[in-house]
Structures are given as C-alpha cells and as structure tokens.
C-alpha cells in the first residue's frame, strides 16, 4: 500500500509500506486521514487550545523608588538609622538640662522649641545655625545626632544634580549647598556634616571636607562616589 497516495494517484517519492505499519506525524499524530495509507483516526482526540492574550500593561515612567546604587545605599542607610530610635513625634517641653544649655549658650528657649518641631529643610541658614548649637550641646552621641537630623528631613523634596562649585567655578550655576531640596548624595553629605558640626560655619567647613579632597573646592578635587 502506498503511504502517500492521493486521489490523483501515487506521488513520485511514495514508498511502499507493509500492511499494519502506518506512517506517523513527527509530532506523534497519524498521517492525514484523507490519505489512502491511513484509514483510521488519530489515537487521541484533537483539542483546540485558546490562547488568551492579555492587553499590554501601561508602563509608568514615574520613578517609584531609587534605582541607582547610590540611591539604594542611602535608602538603606536612612532606614537603618530611622529604626535605631523610636520616633517620638512632636517635641515635648525642654528638660532642665536643655534649658540650662540654652541659658549657657544664650539661646531663646521658645525658638528652640519651635525649631525642634520644624522640618530642617524649611529652615534658613540662621535657624540651622541656632539648631546645631543646641543639638551639639545637648546630644553627645554622634549616632543619635545623625538620626535626629535625618528624621528632620523626612518629606524633603527630591531633585537630582543639585550641587556644584558656584561661585568657585565661573560657569557653574549650582550652589555648594542646598537646604530645601536633596538627592541621595546631598542627603548623606549634609546629614553627616551637620551631625559633626556645632554651628553654621563649622557645618560649611565640614561639608567641604567631606565633598572635596583636603577641602579644596573644585571639579578636579571633588570626591566622586
């Protein structure tokens, strides 16, 4: 019997197979039932598979979370610091030791109470100077000062590429510090510099020592992490 006979006659490449042997499809199915060499149905029923196509998902281009290694390190750093000490919420009245330090430093107790509750990114340079004087005198633990300053910048607006060498570089419009906004690097540098300082001038000096080699401001001496 010809394996590949058709109604019009045998094909030129047909081969003779003995009865009882039927050619099978490479996928396991028998040959076309219409061919004379196959007089039976496939050994299993044919099942139609419906492929369900999902509509394309809309991709949001808004950044959901930090994606660069520097941002991830800063996020982990901040998370660990925030978990170190339970958040106390609004500041309570000043303790007797804090009042004594305010009197010793000549600070207004009412202003200090307001600065404790005020976010640091909403303060001006004079208020930061006053707060750093109070914090360095009343909190001797460096790690707790870091946590306190980091928490005061919660909800600070985020923006990339904030800092430059202005006015030390003639064509750089970006300043050497920024209080109102932050990115991962600015947040880390400002937090460390403020925790290691006792007033605004010392903060600026410490910030440049962290950002630049030997404190010399310039693109060539900047510590590029």
Distance between the termini: 80 Å
Number of strands: 0
Order of helices and strands: HHHHHHH
Low-confidence residue ranges: 1-11, 25-33, 35-40, 85-89
Supply the number of helical segments. 7
Largest sheet: none
Radius of gyration: 37 Å
Shape: globular
- The average pLDDT is 75
- Tell me roughly what share of residues is in helical segments: 25-40%
Strand content: under 5%
- The secondary structure category is mainly alpha
Describe the structure.
The chain is an all-alpha fold and 225 residues long. The chain contains seven helices and no strands. Helix 1 packs across helix 5 and helix 6 packs across helix 7 (200-211). Mean pLDDT is 75; it is low at 1-11, 25-33, 35-40 and 85-89.
Summarize the structure.
By secondary structure, this protein is mainly α.
Topology overview:
Elements: H1 69-84, H2 96-105, H3 109-117, H4 125-138, H5 142-151, H6 184-195, H7 200-211
Helix pairs in contact: 1-5, 1-6, 2-4, 5-6, 6-7
Q: Which terms summarize this structure?
A:
about 220 residues; mainly alpha; 7 helices; about 35% helix; disordered N terminus
């Amino acid at each position: 019997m010809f394996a590949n006979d058709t109604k019009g006659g045998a094909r030129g490449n047909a081969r003779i197979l003995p009865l009882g042997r039927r050619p099978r499809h490479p996928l396991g199915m028998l040959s076309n039932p219409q061919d004379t060499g196959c007089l039976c149905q496939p050994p299993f029923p044919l099942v139609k598979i419906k492929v369900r196509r999902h509509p394309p998902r809309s991709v949001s281009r808004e950044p959901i979370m930090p994606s660069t290694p520097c941002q991830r390190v800063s996020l982990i750093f901040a998370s660990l610091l925030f978990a170190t000490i339970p958040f106390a919420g609004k500041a309570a009245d000043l303790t007797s030791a804090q009042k004594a330090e305010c009197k010793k430093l000549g600070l207004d107790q009412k202003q200090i109470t307001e600065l404790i509750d005020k976010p640091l990114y909403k303060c001006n340079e004079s208020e930061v100077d006053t707060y750093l004087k109070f914090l360095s005198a009343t909190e001797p633990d460096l790690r707790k000062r870091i946590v306190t300053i980091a928490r005061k910048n919660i909800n600070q607006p985020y923006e990339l590429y904030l800092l430059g060498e202005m006015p030390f570089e003639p064509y750089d419009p970006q300043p050497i510090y920024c209080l109102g906004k932050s990115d991962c690097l600015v947040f880390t540098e400002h937090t460390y510099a403020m925790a290691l300082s006792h007033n605004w001038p010392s903060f600026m000096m410490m910030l440049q020592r962290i950002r630049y080699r030997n404190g010399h401001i310039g693109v060539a001496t900047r510590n590029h992490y």
